[in-house]
Amino acid sequence: MLTQQRKQLILDTLRRDGRIVAADLSSSLGLSEDTIRRDLRALAARGLLQRVHGGALPASPAVANFAARSQLQMAGKQAIAAAAAAMVQPGQVLFIDGGTTCQQLALRLPHSLQATVVTHSPTIALALVEHPLVEVQLIGGRLFKHSVVAVGAAAIEAIRQVRADLYFMGVTGISATAGLSTGDMEEAHVKRALMAQAAETWVLASAEKLHAASPYVIAACNAATGLVVEPGTSDQQVAALTALGLALVRA
């Protein structure tokens, strides 16, 4: 089998099964695991998959820049945002992450809501300017332009001084085996700090992020409280995640 044929077969298998197990694929093709791993490395370098221990998962499309992500799966993100906004109670302290789904969430909070929002995202802060009863605490640090969020030691230290009722988390990948992940190491550190300071963490899980992975692990999936998923998400799509004990809110 030619190299290009092998690589196409790997991608076809990944689309069909949602994951690649290198040992199983090498056995079925009669090839060495070294050959399969070499192909996986080459495909990962092109951004076509994410290597994980023992094989590969689909690469998350949510690692595109902010402007591109703003146009990705917008109807699903808006539905998730509305469902998440309905979870908020007056008087609560909220962490709202950066990202396009969280931006939609901020815009959908009721204008009559009295609450405190702590965020490391200038985009989220600006979305709440017209909410007269929402106090906004903006966490500073180095601006990570890809996600338009503050990162670094200063941001983490400020987060550690707050105790929040809810944290609405944005991620680029959600996998029962690979955990919650994102495309930047510093951003992963900030998200872990936010999780540690929140009574509940709800992951805003648009369809393209389910069963995908990115290079930097935030935490195991069961470190979160639950997922907010798009309308029409099937039980089968989330079975491996709910089996870990995650609660589920359907938009």
Provide keyphrases for this structure.
251 residues; alpha/beta; Arc Repressor Mutant, subunit A; seven-stranded parallel β-sheet; 10 helices; 37% helix; elongated
**Main sheet record:** 7 strands, parallel
CATH class of the largest domain: Alpha Beta
Uncertain stretches of 5 or more adjacent residues:
none
Helix percent band: 25-40%
Percent of residues in β-strands: 15-25%
- How far apart the termini lie comes to 46 Å
- The CATH architecture of the largest domain is 3-Layer(aba) Sandwich
CATH level-3 fold name of the largest domain: Rossmann fold
Number of domains: 2
Task: Label the structural class.
Answer: alpha/beta
Count up the helices.
10
* Arithmetic mean of pLDDT: 91
Q: In angstroms, what is the radius of gyration? A: 19 Å
The H-and-E topology, N to C, reads as HEHHEEHHEHEHEEEHEEEHEEEHE
Shape: elongated
Side-by-side strand order of the widest sheet: 6-5-4-9-12-14-15
- The overall strand count is 15
Report a brief summary of the structure.
The chain has 10 helices and 15 strands. It is α/β, with parallel strands linked by helices.
Helix and strand topology:
Elements: H1 3-17, E1 20-21, H2 22-29, H3 33-45, E2 50-52, E3 55-57, H4 66-69, H5 74-85, E4 93-96, H6 100-108, E5 115-119, H7 122-127, E6 134-138, E7 142-144, E8 149-151, H8 153-159, E9 164-169, E10 173-175, E11 179-182, H9 185-196, E12 198-205, E13 216-219, E14 226-229, H10 235-242, E15 247-250
Parallel strand pairs: 4-5, 4-9, 5-6, 9-12, 12-14, 14-15
Antiparallel strand pairs: 1-3, 2-3, 7-8, 10-11, 11-13
